Amino acid sequence: MDLNDIKNNPEQIKAMIALLSSLLPESNANAEPTSENKDNTRTNKSKAHGSKKNLFDTMPEKNQHKADIEIDKKLCKFPPTERARAFSYIELRCRSCGKTEKVNPDLVFDKTRYKCNKCSSTSG
Predict the structure, then answer these.
(1) Which of 59, 83, 100, 116 is the least crowded, having the fewest Cβ atoms under 10 Å away?
(2) pTM as predicted
(3) For each successive 10 residues of the chain (124 residues), what is the average pLDDT?
(4) Are 101 and 91 in contact (CB under 8 A)?
């Protein structure tokens, strides 16, 4: 059998394809590699992430935080406290330059060792 005889006879080509496809495992028998499929796989890899489906939308965890609000309201014994509590400024004198400033008391560790921002940024 010559290769030129096979090229001219489409029935022999179909018979050879059927014979070769029967030798392949079943999972690969359905997917025939064509030049179109190869081009599509290349373009799919190069596309942006926006083309893929977001699987988080189908997960039950997506709405989990919404149900927590209702549970928190039922289990709450005390009302929530404000995050920014009221404070009154204290007057401190800088130990380096002697400048007097009003400062939040939470920012001061030791009143006798306070340094203003200008003196803190300079070395010495």
Answers:
(1) 83
(2) 0.32
(3) 70 85 69 51 53 82 70 78 81 92 89 88 75
(4) yes
